[in-house]
């Protein structure tokens, strides 16, 4: 295995990928000799026009994984980035798909594809098979001048032509109708891609890519799906990149690129396509950026939005934006472009799952989700000295914040270094809450206001532990709330703390001795329950934290991190808690 691929032999790669497809969809079969994926004859439900497509491999799930009910009838694959031969295509049309209602071939505008598919179409016609061909060129990445006679290349917008034609054919439409609607769709598409790097083709020397590779931080705007050059390379950020891409796609005054006029008066379908190497997480962020800019700069709010992996350039680190201007197909109910896009397709590569019915129920505008209104916390009868508690807690939190560098240093040695910052973030959030909170002499309302901050501001394991502990503490306090207002006593605190420890043990196996914050928490609670003295309890916590030095971790991330020098430092979480508690006892004395 090389550093780049699990499968390095390109022939083996393409063949095995094709062979896998029928395993995921029993309605299709693989003719591996001709690299054809096609509907099984017995799986075809009723007579229909066959839709055939294909092209070089490396664009998966296009085209082979789009074969299935409601989409393609057959797909012919070439080697990576190379057109299949006319002979392969001829065999597909003549022998692997139904021909009785005619065949529509949909192909992207690349010289090799147009020639080979074209030749096969002519051969099929000469055999008396009604065959049409639609060539898709949706890419506006390169303008008219540079594109010259060749015209626009085909990229991801092509899948919308496939989908619309496939769904219409499945409804029994005639070849003439399917061809017209496919052409209408192709005529109203604009797409543009951008990539952060060239893709490496398995089996080829990596040097070929390296030669012309983009520099760190550069993006190539308008790059094609076979590493073809785009219009420019520059260092920019996502908002500016999307702005440029949308301008190329939509600017009616750009004579070189104005292929389709799309305005806010049109119904628009947006497809944001992953070129193969962008994480779904990042694609989500990109999609959101595109949606926001379309709304802000063009007043366009697409009525369908597809975001996902539809046509790749191997593991290309890029994405493309496609806009389809929805046109009337003139075919009546059930056969509008939108309904044809929404229609279910049983193809393993088609991932747009939302039906027309669901789309029809979308909210009219993109207004924000209503804010959550939390139920008011019920007051209790446990009273305390608010000013004193606030000042003590402030002292405690400041002591914790001051300990952050130490905690971070310990955690850099035994963990992943974020424990100190996490605690500091939580402490700061509580401090700012204390600043603005309303005065209350109800200890439960006070604890609950802190819980809300901890839950929002602290994440990760320690955030969860603190949140569970504090919630259980609140519960323990409420259970002891007397029938008339009374001051909270050390005994009540002690009992409530015991309850919280018990609750915590339901969710974490950590016990004293495991080198976690429990090594400080347990001694604190136990000591306080017996001594009723916060100073000695805090001291017990500090002793417990010191005791973690040299202790071997059996839980938590420390187990995995196994760095050097862990024997010499205490557990950062236990140390942080001990500092907080020492600060509390110090503050209460004031
Ligand atoms: C777009 O609209 C402009 C202004 O009306 C017009 O000049 C141009 O020809 C149109 N372009 C296309 C591709 O229809
Ligand atoms: C509480 O902790 C203090 C300080 O470590 C210690 O002296 C005392 O004995 C402890 N008390 C109990 C009851 O554990």
TrEMBL record:
The chemistry this enzyme catalyses reads: D-glyceraldehyde + ATP = D-glyceraldehyde 3-phosphate + ADP + H(+); dihydroxyacetone + ATP = dihydroxyacetone phosphate + ADP + H(+)
Query: Where, in this chain's numbering, is substrate bound?
Result: 56-59, 113
A Pfam match is: Dak2
Q: Which SMART domains match?
A: Dak2
Q: Which residues cross the membrane?
A: none
Q: Fetch the InterPro entries from UniProt.
A: DhaK_ATP, DhaK_dom, DhaL_dom, DhaL_dom_sf, Dihydroxyacetone_Kinase
Q: Where is the active site?
A: 226
Q: What keywords is this UniProt entry annotated with?
A: ATP-binding, Glycerol metabolism, Kinase, Nucleotide-binding, Transferase
* CC per GO annotation: cytosol
Pathway participation: Polyol metabolism; glycerol fermentation; glycerone phosphate from glycerol (oxidative route): step 2/2
A Gene Ontology molecular function term for this protein is: ATP binding
The protein's matches in PROSITE patterns, at most eight in alphabetical order, are given as: DHAK, DHAL
Q: Which residue range or ranges hold the DhaK domain?
A: 9-350
- Every DhaL domain range: 387-586
The Gene Ontology biological process terms listed for this entry are: anaerobic glycerol catabolic process
What domain of life is recorded for the organism?
Eukaryota
Role according to the record: Catalyzes both the phosphorylation of dihydroxyacetone and of glyceraldehyde.
> What family is it from?
Belongs to the dihydroxyacetone kinase (DAK) family.
Query: What's the name of the protein?
Result: Dihydroxyacetone kinase
């Amino acid at each position: 295995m090389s550093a780049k691929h699990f499968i390095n032999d390109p022939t083996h790669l393409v063949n095995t990928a094709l062979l896998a497809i029928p395993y995921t969809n029993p309605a299709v079969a693989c003719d591996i000799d001709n690299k054809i994926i096609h509907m099984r004859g017995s799986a075809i439900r009723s007579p229909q026009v066959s839709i055939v497509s294909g092209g070089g491999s490396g664009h998966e799930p296009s085209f082979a994984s789009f074969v299935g009910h409601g989409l393609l009838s057959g797909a012919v694959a070439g080697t990576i980035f190379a057109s299949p031969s006319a002979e392969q295509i001829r065999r597909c049309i003549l022998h692997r798909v139904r021909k009785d209602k005619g065949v529509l071939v949909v192909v992207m505008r690349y010289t090799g594809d147009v020639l080979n598919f074209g030749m096969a179409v002519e051969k099929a016609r000469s055999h008396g098979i009604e065959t049409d061909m639609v060539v898709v060129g949706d890419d506006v990445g390169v303008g008219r001048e540079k594109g010259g006679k060749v015209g626009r290349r085909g990229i991801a917008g092509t899948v919308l032509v496939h989908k619309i034609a496939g769904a219409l054919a499945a409804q029994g439409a005639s070849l003439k109708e399917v061809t017209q609607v496919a052409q209408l769709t192709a005529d109203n598409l604009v797409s543009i891609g951008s990539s952060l790097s060239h893709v490496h083709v398995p089996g080829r020397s990596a040097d070929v890519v390296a030669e012309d590779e983009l520099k760190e931080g550069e993006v190539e705007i308008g790059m094609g799906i076979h590493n073809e050059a785009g219009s420019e390379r520059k260092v920019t950020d996502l908002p500016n990149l999307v702005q440029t891409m949308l301008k190329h796609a939509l600017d009616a005054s750009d004579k070189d690129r104005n292929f389709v006029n799309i305005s806010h008066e049109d119904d628009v379908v947006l497809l944001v396509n992953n070129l193969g190497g962008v994480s779904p997480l990042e694609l989500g962020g990109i999609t959101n950026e595109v949606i926001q800019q379309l709304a802000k700069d063009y007043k366009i709010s697409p009525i369908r939005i597809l975001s996902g992996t539809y046509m790749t350039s191997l593991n290309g680190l890029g994405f493309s934006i496609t806009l389809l201007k929805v046109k009337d197909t003139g075919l009546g109910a059930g056969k509008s472009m939108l309904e044809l896009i929404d229609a279910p397709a049983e193809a393993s590569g088609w991932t747009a799952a939302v039906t027309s019915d669901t789309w029809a129920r979308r909210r009219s505008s993109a207004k924000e989700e209503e804010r959550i209104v939390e139920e008011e916390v019920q007051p209790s009868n446990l009273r305390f000295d608010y000013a004193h508690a606030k000042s003590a807690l402030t002292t405690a939190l400041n002591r914790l914040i001051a300990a952050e560098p130490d905690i971070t240093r310990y955690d850099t040695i035994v963990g992943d270094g974020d424990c100190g910052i996490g605690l500091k973030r939580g402490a700061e959030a509580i401090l700012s809450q204390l600043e603005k909170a309303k005065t209350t002499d109800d200890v439960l309302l006070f604890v609950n206001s802190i819980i809300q901050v901890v839950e929002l501001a602290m994440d990760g394991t320690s955030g969860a532990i603190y949140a569970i502990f504090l919630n259980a503490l609140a519960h323990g306090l409420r259970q002891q709330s007397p029938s008339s207002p009374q001051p909270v006593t050390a005994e009540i605190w002690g009992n409530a703390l015991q309850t919280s420890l018990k609750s915590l043990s339901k969710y974490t196996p950590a016990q004293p001795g495991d080198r976690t914050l429990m090594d400080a928490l347990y001694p604190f609670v136990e000591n306080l329950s017996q001594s009723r003295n916060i100073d000695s309890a805090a001291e017990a916590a500090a002793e417990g934290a010191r005791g973690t030095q040299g202790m071997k971790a059996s839980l938590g991330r420390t187990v995995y991190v196994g760095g050097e020098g862990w024997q010499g430092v205490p557990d950062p979480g236990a140390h942080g808690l001990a500092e907080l508690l020492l600060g509390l006892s110090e503050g209460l004395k004031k």
